[in-house]
Amino acid sequence: MDVEVPSFDTPVVSGSHTEVCVIGAGIAGVSIAHELVRRGADVIVVDDGPIAGGETARTSAHVSNALDDRFHWLESRHGTEAARIAAQSHAAAIDLIEDNAAMIGLDCEFARIDGWLVPASDRDHGELERELAAAIRCGVAVEKLDSPFPFHRGAALRFRDQARFQPVAYVRGLAAAIIAQGGQIHCGLHVDAIEPGRPLGVRLRGGGVIWAKHVVDATNATITSMVRFPIRQAPYRTYVIAIEIAPGSTLDALLWDTADPYHYVRLAGDRLIVGGEDHRTGHGSDPSYHWNALEEWTRQRYPETGEVVARWSGQCMEPADGLAFIGKNPDLEGVYVVTGDSGNGLTHATIGSMIIPALIEGRDHPYAALYDPGRSTLRSVSTIVREALSSNYPYLDWIGRGDVTDPVDIARGEGAVIRRGVHLIAAYRDPHGVLHECSARCPHLSGVVSWNAAEKTWDCPCHGSRFDPLGRVLNPPAVSDLPAAPAHDEKPQPTEPRTPTERRPRHVR
Ligand code: FES
After folding, report:
1. What is the DSSP secondary-structure string of 408-465?
2. What is the pTM (predicted TM-score) of this model?
């Protein structure tokens, strides 16, 4: 059945009171709001972009309880019982997505399929054995079989009851159900700050306020904790291509390998969705390099593929101990968070819709302790230190020369960082040739942003804040735009680029 999706661009009445205000209309925020409304709560959802317009639209939609961080690694950090609960919670999330889609009568192409973990090389068979043993200890339905993929001879692990679906269609369906049951969703509203108190004040850009007894921060990287989560999770970019493939020429299954970074593949009709090439945000090469590497990897294994029809990239938040942070924000009374997707964002978000409504109702939940945002991450201190070094290394950019020395070297539709005295400028030349400048200083904790040529955004390599080409904030933890460029008395910049952008590589690993 088709779902009629209402417009979400209606303005909220400033001074509105609600029981719960959910910030973020991606899969996490909308799933949590849907569950709350279903239980009779009064809910307002706000987002500064469209429904499911952030990372939800960029996922490759592997829905799996075979966790990215592998069960043997999770066991080593958290113990077998905790890893078992993690597996159980992600399986429950898959069930809930299936149930929600059926309850609403939603055609979001949900299908149960197998997931296959294949070794990237002969040397990785030990890794396969370790993961098989750990997954069995964690109660996962897994078996070692001969690989069904022609490009890989030998053993592989088959995980039963995984799934795929269309997350944007699913989230829009849930959003329509929220409206039908009396909830409110308002897009185009940017939240500047949460004012502590009872009720909490959700301060909107432009001066409005929503008063709420509880606030759910479902903004992906959180806007309600400037330090706690940014130092416990690290932002990674990942790349995806969609490539034509003859119908029936490959298995309808999820596939991922043991490479580091690993590759992940699924079928979507007559297209193969292939992802991988992950790297710390702001540390990668030209995105064409990553997309071309994915294409080459794909053609070597799937010779029957045709044209590449789409390419995009997304951002994952990798928590140091491999588990999302879902529950009460220890830094702000009355606020709940869901962050740290760890490459399993669709299921982590859905687990949020089980835990957070229970906590808001004053009840405990069997998964709450595992994902407690206030938990100790001391067992993962080596990962925190390693990622902190990566987060802080980009501060050296403050003494660097920038990407280019002259704005004429910036091609149309591209951006680059330029040094001007003690200042670093984020300069973007629009498709008409007009140069736009703002400060390259990230308003979160003063990292230097770098140009993301794949998504045409400014990305902060420190903790993952992202900004559009004109410096408007897209992703937290920053909540405000890039500052205005400092005034200077140099003559106006020419509007025509000299050549395509030439830049020095920064932090290429
Ligand atoms: Fe933290 Fe930019 S995201 S300094």
Report:
1. GGPPTTEEEEEEETTEEEEEEE-TTS-EEEEE-B-TTT-PBPEEETTTTEEE-TTT--
2. 0.90
